[in-house]
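Good morning,

Attaching, inline, the C-alpha cells for the sequence recovery test we're adding to the shared suite. The designed sequence is right after.
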C-alpha cells in the first residue's frame, strides 16, 4: 500500500512540474521584447561616418530604444551583425561603411540586421562631389529611414503628427519643389556640336570663316576624344595684275581633350591633335594668261585651349582658340607670283553649341 502511495505522489509532483514549466513559458512569451539596437562602429571610420552614426544614435534614443555601441573587430560585417545582435538579445543591429569610388564619388553602404524577421538589408547610396558638405546628413537620413522600415512595430514617434488644417478659400495648394539634379560632367558620354570658325593666316590669305561640326566621346574623369570638321564656308579671293584665284580650305582634325573641374560653371580645357588640310584653288587669268584649277593635301597639327559654359545639364556653349600648322603649306601663285599661302602658322578661333546624350 505504501508503495502505491509513493508512486501516486511522484505522479502528482511530475504533473505539477509540467504545469509550472508551462506557466513559465507563457510568462516568457508574453514578456515585452527587448528594445536594444546594436550600433557597430568601424574603428577606422572617417569624420563623415562618425557624424552620421552619432545622428542615428540620437534618433534611436529619441524613439525610445536602448543603443549598444560595439566596435567592429573584423572585416566580416555580416557575421558580426548577427553575432552582436544575438549576444545582446537585440531587436536589430546596423553599421555604416563608406568606400571611395571613381570620379571623386563615394559609395556608402548601410547594413541592418533584423533579428525579428531574420533578415539582413543592405542599402547603397552614391555620394557625389557636390554632396561633400551634406554627406553625413544624407547618410543619417538614409539610415533612419531604413531602420524605421525594419522597426516599424517598435518605433515610437517623437511627437504626434500635426492635425490637418482646414482648407482655406483663395489659397493655392503648395506643391513640393523637386531638388535639382547634379550637373553631369562636361563632355561625358557621346556628344556633338555645331558652330562657326574664323581662321587668321597672318596676312598670307586674309581672315576666312567657315561652319564647323564635331562629334566626341568623353569619360567623367575629364578626358575625351573628338573629331571635328571645318570648311564649306565662302571662298577667299586672291588677286594680282595678271588674274585672280578663288581659294577654299577644309580641315579634318582628331583631337585629345583634357578638362579641369568638369562639373563647375566654367570648364577650362586644353586640346592637341592632328589631321589633314585640303585646299582647292580655281584660277582666272587675264589675257594672255589662262586660269587653272588644282587641289593640294597636307598633314597638319594643332594645339590650343578653350572654355565651356554649361547652359543645362547636357548642353554647353564652347569657345576655343588653337594654333594650326600644315606640313607642308599650300602656295597660291598667279603668273609665277606668290599671292597667298595656306597652312603656314595660323590661328583658328571658333564657338559652338555642344550637347551630350542624357
Amino acid at each position: 500500500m505504501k508503495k502505491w502511495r509513493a508512486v501516486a505522489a511522484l505522479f502528482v509532483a511530475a504533473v505539477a512540474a509540467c504545469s509550472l514549466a508551462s506557466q513559465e513559458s507563457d510568462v516568457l512569451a508574453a514578456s515585452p521584447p527587448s528594445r536594444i539596437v546594436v550600433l557597430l562602429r568601424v574603428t577606422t571610420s572617417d569624420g563623415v561616418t562618425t557624424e552620421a552614426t552619432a545622428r542615428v544614435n540620437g534618433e534611436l534614443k529619441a524613439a525610445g530604444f536602448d543603443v549598444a555601441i560595439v566596435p567592429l573587430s573584423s572585416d566580416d560585417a555580416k557575421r558580426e551583425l548577427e553575432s552582436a545582435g544575438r549576444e545582446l538579445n537585440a531587436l536589430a543591429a546596423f553599421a555604416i561603411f563608406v568606400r571611395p569610388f571613381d570620379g571623386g564619388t563615394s559609395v556608402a553602404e548601410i547594413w541592418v540586421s533584423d533579428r525579428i524577421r531574420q533578415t539582413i538589408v543592405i542599402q547603397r547610396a552614391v555620394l557625389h562631389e557636390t554632396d561633400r558638405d551634406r554627406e553625413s546628413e544624407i547618410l543619417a537620413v538614409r539610415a533612419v529611414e531604413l531602420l524605421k522600415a525594419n522597426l516599424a512595430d517598435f518605433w515610437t514617434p517623437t511627437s504626434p503628427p500635426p492635425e490637418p488644417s482646414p482648407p482655406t478659400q483663395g489659397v493655392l495648394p503648395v506643391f513640393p519643389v523637386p531638388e535639382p539634379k547634379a550637373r553631369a560632367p562636361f563632355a561625358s558620354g557621346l556628344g556633338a556640336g555645331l558652330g562657326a570658325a574664323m581662321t587668321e593666316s597672318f596676312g598670307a590669305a586674309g581672315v576666312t570663316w567657315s561652319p564647323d561640326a564635331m562629334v566626341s566621346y568623353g569619360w567623367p574623369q575629364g578626358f575625351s576624344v573628338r573629331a571635328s570638321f571645318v570648311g564649306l564656308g565662302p571662298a577667299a579671293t586672291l588677286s594680282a595684275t595678271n588674274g585672280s584665284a578663288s581659294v577654299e580650305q577644309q580641315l579634318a582634325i582628331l583631337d585629345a581633350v583634357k578638362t579641369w573641374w568638369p562639373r563647375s560653371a566654367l570648364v577650362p580645357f586644353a586640346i592637341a591633335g592632328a589631321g589633314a588640310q585640303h585646299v582647292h584653288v580655281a584660277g582666272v587669268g587675264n589675257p594672255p594668261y589662262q586660269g587653272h584649277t588644282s587641289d593640294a593635301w597636307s598633314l597638319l597639327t594643332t594645339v590650343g585651349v578653350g572654355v565651356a559654359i554649361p547652359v543645362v545639364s547636357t548642353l554647353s556653349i564652347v569657345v576655343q582658340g588653337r594654333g594650326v600648322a600644315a606640313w607642308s603649306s599650300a602656295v597660291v601663285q598667279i603668273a609665277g607670283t606668290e599671292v597667298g599661302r595656306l597652312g603656314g602658322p595660323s590661328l583658328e578661333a571658333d564657338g559652338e553649341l555642344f550637347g551630350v546624350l542624357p
